[in-house]
Amino acid sequence: MDAHAAACFLDLVVSLTAAPAAHLLDPSYAFLFSDAELAFGHALRGTVSVAHAAGVPAEVRSALHDALAPFGVGAVDVPTGDGVAPDPRLTALLEDVERLGPPETWPAPDGYPGLALCVLDAVWSIGVRYEGVVNVVGRYRALAAGQGRDADQDGPAELLASAAAIGGPEALAEALGNRQRTSTRSGILKAEAVLLTARVLADAEVQSTAALLALSPKALRADFVAVRGQGSGLSFDYLLMLAGRPGVKSDRMIRRFVARATGAESADAVTVSDARDLVTGAAAALGVDAHRLDSAIWTSMARGGG
Fold first, then answer.
1. The pLDDT of residue 230
2. 275, pLDDT greater than 60
3. What is the DSSP letter of 245?
4. How many helices, marked H, and strands, marked E, lie in the chain?
């Protein structure tokens, strides 16, 4: 073992034997935490960013840093001390968010009582116009009703059984009136991706939104993103949000909004984590749920706002 490898190994030993909370805000230790804990960490990072906005007294920033010290606040890359300049990206994003109107006028975030509809929406919504997703969900409701079920009560097992009863992925794509693929290059039918991700949940005995949210999804994520076309993890993050967990789905719509607000060259110049942290920070500054702001941004962009 060379010196670098030995140092990395010792660092890992220290991290595993120290209080895990000490690394919550350090992205290099993300592997130690569940998705719920990481979401909490993103919210804390957003709070730190907000504390460095213009007009926040230095003593407030200092008190916040002291309170968050056990979570590794030093790993958050923000300036400290008196006369601190605000994070210009967050300030710019908040200015652009004002164009969305008062938060009370924003559309309610999407979500479903049944896990099957969450899976359909989460997988189908990546990279497409949302009207198409609405149509897919509506046709699945009709399919379930024709088979004697209420789609809002369906879990992964019912989704799999419904597709099997009509002939599998190809037949499901026909029934839903949508043969889109996860990618234009070597992608599989989204109908097949839906069934493969439903199988991941069914095999883990996750049949309801409550069961999904009660489970630490770390191992589940690995199986979910192994499905072709789901490697980015965006669908899995959105699945959790549709099931009721606060969060931000940093897809191209969200990153385009952040890029426009912050002066980045393009959506590709904004990382998924930066978009998530900035939107989370903006939501914290406004005192609103991050998913609600995510939904308002997405709806605005889908209507031609970007």
1. 94
2. yes
3. -
4. 15, 0
Q: Given the structure tokens 């002066």, which residue do they identify?
A: 263
Quick: pLDDT tens for 152-173.
999 999 999 999 999 999 999 9
CA distance 9 to 135: 51
Q: What's the mean per-residue pLDDT of the chain?
A: 83
Contact 251, 234 (CB under 8 A): yes
Residue spans of beta strands (DSSP E) within 101-167: none
Type of residue at 169: P
pLDDT tens-digit series, residues 128-141: 888 899 999 999 99
Each residue's pLDDT tens digit, 64-116: 656 665 555 444 444 444 444 567 899 999 999 999 999 999 988 889 999 99
3-class DSSP state of 287: coil
DSSP annotation of 267:
G
Main-chain dihedrals φ then ψ at residue 181, nearest 5 degrees: -115, 160
Q: Which two tokens stand for residue 44?
A: 């804390």
3-state secondary structure of 189: strand
CA distances for 21 relative to 69, 146, 230, 281, angstroms: 10, 50, 29, 20
Distant-in-sequence contacts of 95-102, Cβ < 8 A, 24+ apart: 95/261, 96/257, 96/260, 96/261, 97/261, 97/282, 97/286, 97/293, 97/296, 97/297, 99/300, 99/305, 100/296, 100/297, 100/300
In terms of average pLDDT, the best of 14-18, 21-25, 189-193, 271-275 is 189-193
Instruction: Name residues whose C-beta falls within 8 Å of residue 134's C-beta, 6 or more positions apart in sequence.
Output: none
Q: Where exactly are the structural domains of the chain?
A: 3-86, 115-243, 252-305
Q: How far is CA 126 from CA 22, 45, 60, 163, 299, in A?
A: 35, 26, 40, 21, 14
Q: What pLDDT is recorded for position 238?
A: 92
